[in-house]
Specification:
Elements (H helix, E strand, L loop, with lengths): L3 E3 L3 E4 L6 H8 L16 H13 L6 E7 L2 E10 L2 E6 L8 H15 L4 E6 L4 H9 L3 E12 L2 E11 L1
Antiparallel strand pairs: 1-2, 2-3, 3-4, 4-5, 6-8, 7-8
Helix pairs in contact: 1-2
């Protein structure tokens, strides 16, 4: 399993415990976390616990990366539990094609690792993520209501799949 993926502008590398503080900048941002599977993190300890789960995840179940730009952490991309993947990019970096670039690298990586599919669970209101997935060949496989309780809000899901 590769420890690093490179694109023209990005390096996707394995997470380290010391990434928690930089990741907390993103995970405490309510805009960044709008469609994430948890409310924004209030305390650094919450992000440290999340980061530890990423670092310690067994490689046969997980294939997750930290996204860096010029050596600076700008997000996470990958699968905490294969084949379902997700991504979280710093809103200051949105609209510059980084998620698309990281997705192409991740798809190619999973193909090379013998993966057969990738899946994603997306909030129907998250139009940019839906456009990203469909632009890269993901197809909708179903919808469900009331799938995620995020704070006080009950959210819905659209499920996507890409055959590798």
């Amino acid at each position: 399993m590769s420890d690093e993926l490179r694109t023209d502008r990005l390096v996707l590398r394995r997470a380290r415990y010391e990434d928690a503080e930089a990741m907390h900048r993103i995970m405490s941002n309510r805009v960044a976390m709008r469609y994430w599977s948890s409310p924004p993190h209030q305390a650094l300890a919450e992000t440290e616990e999340w980061m530890a789960s990423m670092v310690e995840a067994p490689p046969e179940l997980s294939d997750d990366f930290i996204v860096t730009l010029g050596g600076r952490l700008i997000g996470k991309f990958g699968a905490w539990r294969l084949p379902e993947f997700g991504f979280l990019i710093d809103p200051a970096q949105w609209g510059q094609g980084y998620a698309s670039e990281a997705l192409v690298a991740f798809i190619n990586h999973r193909r090379g690792a013998g993966g057969t599919e990738l899946t994603a669970d997306v909030d129907p209101r998250n139009e940019p993520s839906i456009r990203l997935l469909t632009r890269h060949g993901f197809e909708e496989t179903g919808r469900a209501t009331g799938t995620w309780q995020i704070g006080d809000e009950l959210c819905d899901s659209i499920y996507y799949r890409l055959e590798l």
